[in-house]
Each structure stands twice: as C-alpha cells, then as structure tokens.
C-alpha cells in the first residue's frame, strides 16, 4: 500500500516542517508515514486531537483515521476547523466499505483522503497486492503525482477519456518529482473498480449495512456477556475489555480457529467483513462466553437498533452515479462489459507491445496457478507466524535463491516495486552511514542515463543528486565521474548505477567504478531492475555493489502488463543487513544487531501473494535454465542488432562490438528523409501484428553467435521457449520514446 503517497504535499521548500499524526491510526500507517517523513526531513508528532496545537503555523498537515484503528467513528470537524484556520491541511485515512454508509470525509472538510481498496473484492493475500487510493479536493488536483485521465471529445464529437499527462512525472522532473512511483497496482485497481461496477451503490450499501448489522449483533451479545466495549459508535470493528479472563477467551478462539487482535494492554479487537455469516457470529459469541446465539441476540434487539445509521454520521449523499456503475449488475452483463474493454486493448495475445519495460518476461500458467489457492490468497498479514509457515518457507527459499543469483547476503521482501526498493535501499545506506557517525554524507551520484525513478527515489531518501555525464558510447563518463567523486568526497553517500547500462551496454569499468566509490566512503546502489542479462552469468555482489532491488515483475516473470502489481525486493551485502526494513506489528528483522531504516510498506512482506510466481519460475527453470535464458536474451539482442545494422544505426555497443540484452536503433535520420518517427515505426510494427516466435534450436543458435555467424533460425521479440522465457527489448530512442 502506498499509504504515504500524500507526503509529497509536504514539499521541501515549505517552512512548515511539522506534521501531526493521530496516535489512533493503524500502527503500520504510522510507521510508514514516520519513515517517509524522517528521510525527507519532516518532523512528525504523534498526538491525540485535543493535544494538537496549530497556532504556531508550523504544521503542514495532520493525519487521522476514520473509523480509527480501534473501530471508533468520531467527528473530526472541530479538529479540521482548527487546522484550516491555521493553514494546515487535513488528511484522513479511511475505509471504502465504511464510507458506503458513513458520511464521507470530503463532506466534513478533509483535504486529502487515502486508504486501501482491498475491501472492494480483493483477497487479503497475506498483505498484498492491493491498490491504495488517494483523493484530494479540487484545489489540490494539480499537485497529485502520476497521470491524470481527462474527459474530452474525439473527432466525431463523442465523449472519450484520454491520458492528460502521458509521461510519468519522474521521467520529466527527475529529482524534482513528487513521487517515484512507476509500477503501481493497476490490476488491483481494476479489480476494485469492477467490484464497484458490478454492485453499484445500492449493492455496496447493502454489503456495508450487512457488515454493520452483524457488528451490532456481536456488540450486543458481548455487552450481555458482561464485556466492556470501548466505543459506542463503530462500523465493523469492536474493541473489548473482557469481563472474564482474557486467556479463556483466547483459548476458545484458538479452538474455533479465529484470530482476534490482542492489544498490549490486554484489550481485544474483533473485525468483521463481507464474508461473515451466522455461524461465524455464533462462534465469536461462544468464544466470548455469550450464552445466546446470534439469532437470539438479534431477536432481542428489535428494530430500533440501527447503529451509525440512526446518527448524524449516516451518509445521505449519493455516490457512483455514473452510468457505468448502474448498468452491469448481472454476471453475464459484467462479463460482456469486461470483454468489451479487453477487446480494445492491444496486448501480447495480439501483437508486440511497444512498451519499454526493460526485461519483462512472459509467464506460464503453471506459475500463476498457485496464487489463486486460498492458502495463499485468504490469509491476513498479521496472523501469528505459526499459521503462515508455508509463506515463511517460500520467503526463505526465494531469499536463498535470490542471494545465490545476486551475490548478496540478505533480502528484504517489503518493497512493493522497483522504485520502492530504490527508496528502501537508499534509506538503508543512509541509516548505515548515520550509524557510522557519517550523517553528513548525503550526495548521490546518478548518471544522466538512469531510469527516472533513480533521482526521484534518491530525493525521497533525503539525498542530494549530482548528475554524472554519459559518454558517446552510452557509458558513464569516467572522467566526469572522477571529478564529481573528488568534488563531493567529503559528503559522498552513494552512486546509483544501472548495469548493463540503460543504453544496453555492459560497461567494462563497472568493478573500478565500485572501487572508486568505496575508496571515497560511498556505497554502491546497483539498479537491478534488469537482471535479465546477468542471472546465472555475473553477480552484482561480486563486482562490488552493496545493494540492489530486483524487479520480480520483469526478470522473474510476475506479469505486470497495465502497470502492476510488482515486487521490488532488495538484496544487500552483510554490512547493510541490520538496516533493512522492520514492521511495527510483525517482527521481521531477525538480525541481532538490527537498527532498521524504518518501515516502507504497511504489509510486512509487501505483496506476498505474487511471490509464488517467481518461486515457481526459479524452481522450474533451475540453475541451468536461468543461465540459458540470460544467454538467449543476449544472443537475441545481438542477433537483431546484427540483422538490422545495415538499415539502422545501432546507437551504442560495448568496446568489443556487442550489445547486452537490449539495444537502441537510431530512427532520428528518418525524420529528415521521410518524416517518419519512432512512434510511426512502432505503430507500423503493430499493424503487422509483430510477434515472432522462436523456432530454432537454441544451442545451435548460440554456437553460431560465438562463431560470429548468426543464422536466421532464431528470431525473436517477446518469444518463449520451453526451457526459458525471455523478451528482447528495443527501446528508448527507438520505438518507445513517444508512445
Ligand atoms: C522498471 C525499472 C525501474 C522501476 O521499477 P518499478 O517496479 O516500475 O518501480 C527502475 N529502474 C529500471 C532500470 C527499470 O527498468
């Protein structure tokens, strides 16, 4: 969850350095926000509303949660008014299902509303993937990161939607970007949207009412059994002080295989969701020693018990009024609607996708099958570890394999994307340097060719960015690098490098570059998004890197068409292991000298539920297969470069004349000669449904390459072979620049 996406509002030049957090937010939300604020130099203070003083006009924002972590529904209008009077923005974390029947935060003056859309039909998934949402008042819209969809008219005057801003912010604004998010949760956002489309506002209200009614019945039963409820107004969550022994309740809960939240002061918490049925209520009542069944309790309650629906918190405004939410309420209709949308897409099942996503691989059905198993999908991220031993085993296996592949010593699975991995890895570097007493080290060297997320992440980790020039071969300009290292040697924190470079070249000097940085007290962050050209062949940990993220949604087969989900675990050398992320609810840092950088995701192991995909990929490929896939990727890129070199200029090659796993064709001359641009070529390729399939014997093809004699039996762009899956990528100044 990108719960902390709203932090960009606290821009660095703002004089208001303070940010208040209501102590009754979820602990994981507090941890993520505190960590994020810590690296950007914002001072957070944990308080209750009545303790919050805005009069110094030094507070930029205040975050509270509605309903709060104990389930309480409360009126925040007075707090918001005080905040607004002093120029402070009000941010509210909330629950979408509750808002179907609760007065929404926008109606009591909140400026920024955020939360998870998991409750809209997405399984718990041991923490993720889930899409977060983030909504603002009209006056703040232009400050939101990411891309906007606008309504416009097409050539025939029909209303259509289009992207208003086509390029991601971090690629244009680099270190000035307000967000580093690249891979997001597009698939999950679509799932939640379809849940809304299918149920419509009436259906959603029914679901919310049902959950609330079940909670009211439970509350009544618990009161009758002599327990104390902490809050009178709630939606789906109760906080209880037991009238009997807590141990007795917990023992009975274990018998019925029900988990309750246990607070440090002995209070217990119970939350219900859409799936709750009468049997569940009976079980929970029994656990708490209530003599009656849910039915009997309900009978005794009568009609007048309506909970929040009989208070001023009841929602009166309409929502989801657009036609799309009021048209597809049967299974056949929603399926036809989804199919109609799908038919508008050009995807790999039709054609090549001219998308520069580096080394995204095709994935097999066998890799995807396990993620729908309930053992992976229906498990809460905060269950006791002994209930999630399968996951724990999977994490261990995957960590071991990824360490072996990368040459690192420890992996953190908390980051949900490559960009989030960058932020976590750089924060680990910062935490390490701080612990060494070198807090002043904050300069991060980043070549101009780096992916846009690099400078954006470095900025989020509180570093100052020094760009490094690129030479005519597309490699780091070593003399400029040396000059900048010398200039910043006192304050050098890190270098972020991509290897093979973004221009598709294995740089000869990589080990020397790492040495140079280390000699001057800096750390090396190697952007491992594109391990495609390295897996099985070379390891960042061996040639001198200290930390990398791996894009499991590129090199390790998690499908991420449409923009996400992804997983961006980071690997680190031993000395950085103590600084890896921690979690406020589940103990995940096992290093005995742990001194964690903080928390980067609300879920302890990020988007755990998609890790089985990479696990299956690695296990089915095996060491030989993985290496073979890398070789084939490099072979194909070189084959294509060779075949095309007579017709196009190949922009960059290594000193030996070879490219890595990708290369750049210069199409700029055609602009002059034929008024044809890269985007025209890309579209023409699509017209031809360009997706060629590997037909040749791979071994034979590889031998030919080594004899510098490329036959034409291996062709490939996005092809798949039974022993390995790989994709050749032709990007940047070629086909993707303007797409
Ligand atoms: C894709 C990519 C990233 C960003 O990864 P996300 O998962 O999209 O955040 C960073 N660096 C490089 C080189 C990449 O290709």
Automatic annotation (TrEMBL):
Principal place of residence: mitochondrion
Sequence ranges assigned to domain Glycine cleavage system P-protein N-terminal in this UniProt record: 11-288
Checking SUPFAM superfamilies in the record gives:
PLP-dependent transferases (SSF53383)
Q: Which residues form the Glycine dehydrogenase C-terminal domain?
A: 629-691
Reactions catalysed, semicolon-separated, are: N(6)-[(R)-lipoyl]-L-lysyl-[glycine-cleavage complex H protein] + glycine + H(+) = N(6)-[(R)-S(8)-aminomethyldihydrolipoyl]-L-lysyl-[glycine-cleavage complex H protein] + CO2
Q: Which residues carry this modification: N6-(pyridoxal phosphate)lysine?
A: 554
Q: Where in the cell is it found?
A: Mitochondrion
Instruction: Report the residue ranges that make up the Aromatic amino acid beta-eliminating lyase/threonine aldolase domain in this protein.
Output: 386-529
Q: Which cofactor does it need?
A: pyridoxal 5'-phosphate
Any one biological process term the GO annotation gives? glycine decarboxylation via glycine cleavage system
Which spans are transmembrane here?
A: none
What Gene Ontology molecular function terms does this protein carry?
glycine binding; glycine dehydrogenase (decarboxylating) activity; lyase activity; pyridoxal phosphate binding
Family affiliation: Belongs to the GcvP family.
What the protein does? Answer: The glycine cleavage system catalyzes the degradation of glycine.
How is the quaternary structure described? The glycine cleavage system is composed of four proteins: P, T, L and H.
What is the protein name stated in its UniProt record? Answer: Glycine cleavage system P protein
The source organism is: Meleagris gallopavo (Wild turkey)
